[in-house]
Amino acid sequence: MLESRFRMLDLMDVELSADLLLPINAIGLVVFINGSGSGRTCPCNRQVAQALARLGLGTLLLDLLTETEQRLDNLTRELRFDIALLGSRLVEVIDWIDRDPALHCLLIGLFGASTGAAAALLAAAERPDRVHAVVSRGGRTDLATVVLPRVKAPTLQIVGAQDPLVFSLNFQSSHVLHCEQRLEVVAGATHLFQEAGALEEVARLAGGWFEKYLREVAVIL
């Protein structure tokens, strides 16, 4: 059984909107971060979140920008590349999870797309004791280069075979990361993974990664 509900996250200076999907006896909570401007409404992330829920993983789909900030970004596209802002907001979200009575006991994974992947890695570096796995989907992980050596959470980068620029950037990131990591290429997929079966493969890879590393830590604890 799944509990799905809308949440307002009260952070230090802003309120953020989020959609929580929480299976009974969830083994962990995966926070979704999309840097492309679509936030928690991104259909790709929602499809992957549903697949993770079927594996017993809770999901929290976020808007890291307020409505006013989102309107500005829709015009200028500048805030989606403000990795310091997005990363600091995500750190606050992780701290909010720690204060929430229903969520604080769950192990945290991060799923970042586009520039959201850079924010995820920044937050993983800042909260190494709380973030236990990271997955990037077509992510600009290169925008987090300065913190990559500090990331401890096992990190999976997923890129489409028909997305040569992001593949090259992810390949470079893989040589800077010091944690356990893998770079997976989805055959036939372009940047948005809109091809038939591409998102299903993303969900399969991400689900396996989160199941392995969140369950592994849960067993230790």
Layout of helices and strands:
Elements: E1 2-10, E2 15-23, E3 28-34, H1 43-54, E4 57-62, H2 67-76, H3 83-99, E5 108-113, H4 116-126, E6 131-137, E7 155-160, H5 164-174, E8 181-186, H6 198-220
Parallel strand pairs: 3-4, 3-5, 5-6, 6-7, 7-8
Antiparallel strand pairs: 1-2, 2-4
Helix pairs in contact: 1-6, 3-4
Could you explain the architecture of this structure?
By secondary structure, this protein is of the alpha/beta class. The protein has a single domain, classed as Alpha/Beta hydrolase fold, catalytic domain (Rossmann fold, 3-Layer(aba) Sandwich), CATH 3.40.50.1820. It is built from 6 helices and 8 strands; from the N terminus they run βββαβααβαββαβα. Helix 1 packs across helix 6 and helix 3 packs across helix 4.
* Series of secondary-structure elements, N-terminal to C-terminal: EEEHEHHEHEEHEH
**Which sequence of strands runs across the widest sheet?**
1-2-4-3-5-6-7-8
Strand content: 25-35%
Give the tally of β-strands.
Answer: 8
CATH overall fold name: Rossmann fold
CATH superfamily: Alpha/Beta hydrolase fold, catalytic domain
Poorly predicted segments:
none
Rg value: 16 Å
Average pLDDT rating: 91
The biggest beta sheet, please?
8 strands, mixed
CATH architectural type: 3-Layer(aba) Sandwich
Highest-level CATH class? Alpha Beta
Specify the overall morphology: globular
Per DSSP, the total helix count is: 6
Distance between the termini: 25 Å
Q: Into how many domains do the coordinates divide? A: 1
